[in-house]
From TrEMBL:
Transmembrane segments: none
Membership in a protein family: Belongs to the ABC transporter superfamily.
Keyword Transmembrane part of the UniProt annotation: no
UniProt entry keywords in alphabetical sequence: ATP-binding, Nucleotide-binding, Transport
Keyword hit for ATP-binding: yes
SMART domains: AAA
Name this protein carries in UniProt: ABC transporter ATP-binding protein
InterPro entries: AAA+_ATPase (IPR003593), ABC_transporter-like_ATP-bd (IPR003439), ABC_transporter-like_CS (IPR017871), P-loop_NTPase (IPR027417)
Sample GO molecular function, one term: ATP binding
Domain of life: Bacteria
Amino acid sequence: MTELHDAEAMISDLPPSPAVWCSGLHKRYRRRTAVDGVSFTVGRGEVMGLLGPNGAGKTSVIKMLLGLVRPDAGEVLLLGRSARDPRSRSRVGYLPELFRYQPWLTAAEVLALHVRLAGVAVPEAERRECLGTVGLADRAGDRVGGFSKGMQQRLGLAVALVARPELVVLDEPTSALDPVGRADVRDLLLSLRERGVAVLLNSHLIGEVERVCDRVVILDQGRIAASGTLPELLGRRELRLRLDGVGERAAARLAAVGRTTRSGDAFTVVLPAEEESGAVPGLVADLVGLGVRVHAVEPVRISLEERLLDILRTGHDEERP
Ligand SMILES: Nc1ncnc2c1ncn2[C@@H]1O[C@H](COP(=O)(O)OP(=O)(O)OP(=O)(O)O)[C@@H](O)[C@H]1O
């Protein structure tokens, strides 16, 4: 008995298992490899963004995580349990990319149905509040068949949230929403994080991902092209210059600072991570000394969109080993 209590005490002292843990996921559809060795974790209370071009494998990964598509290889644990275990599934909320709800049911009935399916007791007042959170408070008694696409997506969000999930997986949750609806979803994601709910968000709206996500995984052709926290991914700074009269020695001086690209008189130099505060004034002084005319100098931190395009163009994340 004491030993059992000791074991329970030891387990309760352990940090909670990640919301999502997956390792070596592979999926082929006939000859086409859709997902090729994808591994990542989503911590409890973490908002993680999945980014990548059309066909990169994002939805396939999500479906494998949720047990909706069987991986050819790889392992998945949701909330510390197998993805097929009903005990983990009942604590996961999911909004699919292509959503459709029973058109003959009212919004309130759809929520009641999903609460029953999840096997969780959620009082009616709480279900109504959930509809209010997604802006459907006054449509609870209306049939879903008469809802606009955006309203159906809002209902889908309510379905994903209503059974008090510990992990919420949202596949393009704002694709049908108006700008106000998008801003509402952003607030919703932040409030989920505050409550310790983990979120996996697949979205093409990079600005949205940049605002709400703690960490990002970038998929390209079924593989992880880059991943990290936003500061890790965006930590890179660049120096943008407009110069004329750049000869060989000046070009070499620019290249000595970092990788340099040129488009006409516009030069972009990647600044090293451990850039000394004197590096930029020193460079400008040297360029002037080499006869270069300096029209503009602007150090910038790149946006997630620029970073994403850069990673997808070069095929890998040059910042990381
Ligand atoms: N059921 C299927 N049968 C055959 N091929 C599939 C199937 N589902 C996905 N694929 C293929 O797998 C690849 C990845 O598709 P997936 O839907 O996972 O990409 P995605 O990153 O979610 O794309 P998007 O941003 O366009 O939604 C694509 O080449 C797609 O054609």
